[in-house]
Design a protein that fits this description.
alpha/beta, binds magnesium ion, single chain, Rossmann fold, 6-stranded mixed β-sheet, globular, 4-stranded antiparallel β-sheet, 247 residues, binds adenosine-5'-triphosphate
Length: 247
Amino acid sequence: MSLSTPSLQPVVRISGVSKRFGSAVVLRDLWLDILPGTFTGLVGINGAGKTTLIKCLLDFCSLDTGKIEIFGLPHHSHKSRFRLSFLPERFTPPHFLSGREFVRTMLGISGLAYEEMVTRSMFNDLGLHQSALDKPVRSFSKGMTQKLGLAACLLSQRDFFLLDEPMTGLDPAARVRVKNLLGSLKAKGKTLLFTSHSLADIEEICDHMVVLHGGGIAFSGTPRDLRNKFEEPTLELAFLRCIGTDG
Ligand SMILES: Nc1ncnc2c1ncn2[C@@H]1O[C@H](COP(=O)(O)OP(=O)(O)OP(=O)(O)O)[C@@H](O)[C@H]1O
Ligand SMILES: [Mg+2]
């Protein structure tokens, strides 16, 4: 009998992934595991390839080389996405639906029943006014729309949350609310991979961060490790050193 602890199956395993658009290489031979229960922040300058990596993961675009597994299944198998909830970078719900209809539709896709009280409570937690349940989403402000997307994601009861710039358009109060909600996901052992340009958020939320730069992974480790590596007092300065610029 072996006494060794079995190694955890990664939620995501990215093995040797490369992606180019025409002659432009965006991702170059990436290797990365996302372990269960971890909160990983994917950071990088505009155009670094964060959204492209997410699109590759979701099989929205083909890989040039390598493979991706989600919960041990090939990423192109639709079953690999059964336990995943995704919020896109530019979230635009169908304009003719009301807030309630949108949430009901999204829960239906996940095979879940719509529950009015649970949805009202989530709207409350996100600071989204209850009247948004009845209003058409075309009348929502940018931040309200973002909160609606987050509400649908967080109500999905999935195990892995993949959020591309989830804090976009949120006011400071809403950012605090979202961070609290993410904190409860962490307590439930859920896994999070998200992109953000706010290194303060990364430092606050993540136990792991990945810096994407020049098509490759310039750093992978804890935010504290990045600061220590470059002996900088802030994550922002360490990030700039990591990508070889001072701003
Ligand atoms: N469908 C596409 N066709 C051609 N080039 C693309 C396509 N999608 C992305 N790119 C290019 O790939 C590069 C990476 O884009 P991507 O959207 O992944 O960056 P990002 O890191 O998410 O940036 P941001 O922080 O601005 O969201 C950019 O140079 C972009 O122009
Ligand atoms: Mg992006």
